[in-house]
Predict the structure.
Amino acid sequence: MAESRHSLFRQFGRSDWHGFLKGIEKEGLRVDGNGFIAQTPHPEALGSTLTHPRITTDYSEALLELITPVCDSTEAVLAALSDIHRFVQRHLGDEVLWAASMPCELDGDPSIPIANYGRSNIGYLKHVYRQGLAVRYGRVMQSIAGVHYNLSLPDSFWRNWQALLGNDQPLKDFKSDQYFWLIRNFRRRSWLLMLLFGASPALDASFVAGVRHDLARFDDRTFYGAWATSLRMGDLGYHNNAQSSLNICFNELRTYTETLGRAIQTPWPPYEAIGTRRGDDFIQINTSVLQIENEYYSSIRPKRTTLRGEKPIQALDARGVEYIEVRCLDLDPFSPVGISRRQVDFLDLFLLDCLLSDSPRICDAECERLDDAYKDVVSRGRDETLTIHWQGRNQNVREAAGSLLEQLAPLADQLDSLSGGSAYRDALSAQRETLAEAVPSARVLEAMRGAGLGHRDWVLELSRQHQQTLRRDPLAPEVQQQFEQMARDSLAEQARLEAEDDTPFEQFLADYLRS
């Protein structure tokens, strides 16, 4: 019998193991003092959303996205995220950064300003893409926020791992195959993350105004899912008929880029009926199932840093997978920065085990079963009678979760022995406690009931507390200066791009679509 991958990994010694590389992208709405989505433009003191490396916007002008650099430790990535938050919080005036994934009070699509990236062609392309999301899905859905966790392993690991496996592929191809190995197991197990980290069981009534739903009433302004862990990832979140028609293959890089590329080239009749322009204004990039790769929503993505003007598919095909992006994480409303150390360490443990465990190709029947398990935990994860299909049979979700956590224990021991300390055992212990006591979605509802507040007022109060915490802790003078310089440099870079642009946007878009 071939030696197991876990056994092979146990051959790593301290001198072979250099840890993980990680980064965080954290979204959050700017909200006014009454708990309503901010109508103000992006604060100029935060720099240009087009060119700033750390502070940008996602869909809406009010939806900030804070991006850490790539770090080699949990301490470093959380310190970087905290620094960005502290700088941002000092420039919000009377506004606050919303602490929850499900949004504040809204007043329909018109209340959600689409992000503005300036007058350059690349900036306008980003704006048109978001206009396309508006006509395809509506703006309300785009006000949801989350955390994206990016993870990779250094080349020193991959060279050692390749030697242990006796593999002779080019390194970029080997790494891509191994990242897809991880992704296949992630898709099998992602239901566990929704149980342990889903933290959006309730929402403001304005989010579902005029929408049919089966949520229960919490109070006159709040609805909630009786057993839901994450309304963000459920039927009220990112979905539509066109995307439900896709069959994106996550088994290997070639089929992934081929099926995703096909979706960008395949017309969708309802989008053709909308067209790409209203008068002189562009309202979507094209009329295909997807405008660009980023429109496809999945709980995990293979990623590669792109060069200027390069599309994500082109970068992946040319240079292979560089890192994976976990996209299914709700904001932790109890954390001032939306994510905790124990969560980051657990994600590292969980993702490495996805790489080290057996990972056969996913057939259509298994794909349907694992999608069902994921959806069931999103909508009913707190129902202790819920069963999911796991390891070849139907199991109670809590028992399946407990067995999967126990499966991670030997790897947690090994990682602690390689890196020193007890971070991974502590992270695993924290999730055992979460499972035994109260998952985050239950804690949210308990806190709301204890405070006697609905979703809007409870999250607004929590957001103010986080703001006070972050503002009390000043940035080091040199860090403050670095952020101020980044803001100035980004504004100058945007101005340079706008001054140099002399191609009409129509021609720029045609060239982009042909590339």
Summary: The mean pLDDT is 95. Residues 5-494 form a domain with the Creatine Kinase; Chain A, domain 2 fold (CATH 3.30.590.20). The first helix runs from residue 5 to 9. Residues 215 and 225 are 5 Å apart (CA to CA).
